[in-house]
Design brief:
Strand content: under 5%
Distance between the termini: 37 Å
Number of strands: 0
Number of helices: 5
Order of helices and strands: HHHHH
Shape: globular
Amino acid sequence: MNWIVCSLVGLGSGLLASMGLGGGFIMVLYLAIFTDIAQQNAQGINLLFFIPIIVLSVILHLKNKLIDVPTALRCGLTGALFAVGGYYIAQAVEGEWLRRGFAVFVILAGLKDLLSRSGSKDG
């Protein structure tokens, strides 16, 4: 595996993730398409990759009072519970179907962004 390419993917993924923009897309797509790593392994690597980014981003956002802590805790706990369920589903689904499902999800997310109103207050 080319370390320069891996470093660039990590840089882009980390920058996007720290801004809350879903940098995991880059990491999973790169690992699943351009390497011979299985989809389930790519998703696991992606999750492990984000632990230090999450810690640093939360510290900086808390410092700048950009996190509503009660809401974040509720969402985080709910997300953690469903992540366990998602893990078991991902293990039960054949890799090819997991790749297809992820591709559909990425396409739908992209279409939503492309078709959303550009003049909205969020950007």
